[in-house]
Amino acid sequence: GHLANLEDLLLDENCLTEVPDEVALLVKLRSISLKSNRIGKYCPLSPQEEQRQASAEALSEKQLYELQHRQSISAGLFTHTSVVSINLMGNIVKKEEVLSFEGVDAFLQRRKLSKDKSFAGGALTDHSIFGLD
What we know:
This protein is mainly alpha-helical. It has helices at about 45-55, 60-70, 75-80, 95-100, 105-120, and strands spanning about 10, 30-35, 85. It is built from 5 helices and 3 strands, in the order ββαααβαα.
């Protein structure tokens, strides 16, 4: 699409509660700032999902749990983009929670390689992870 070459995305102060799966399409994305939003550990339920939850007899226990516990930041941001910088300062989510998200290991490896290169080149780099330190 039109945003395929996007490298930096600034979404500060937008009352966001999640980073959707579509962000994985931004494969060249290197930096995303999500400061001062409402991102917590889990995604809030959509009205359709709330309706599904209300009729819980139609869902297995596993489906109900998965519905209520979807991580708020798509694994695709960590695994399918080139992101090495994510700023979550001012959100509800805690560093330990983000570190437990699916896909975050790929991001951490990529970030370490990037920071090691910068450091080897003499640059002073910010070693804060997610702006939540």
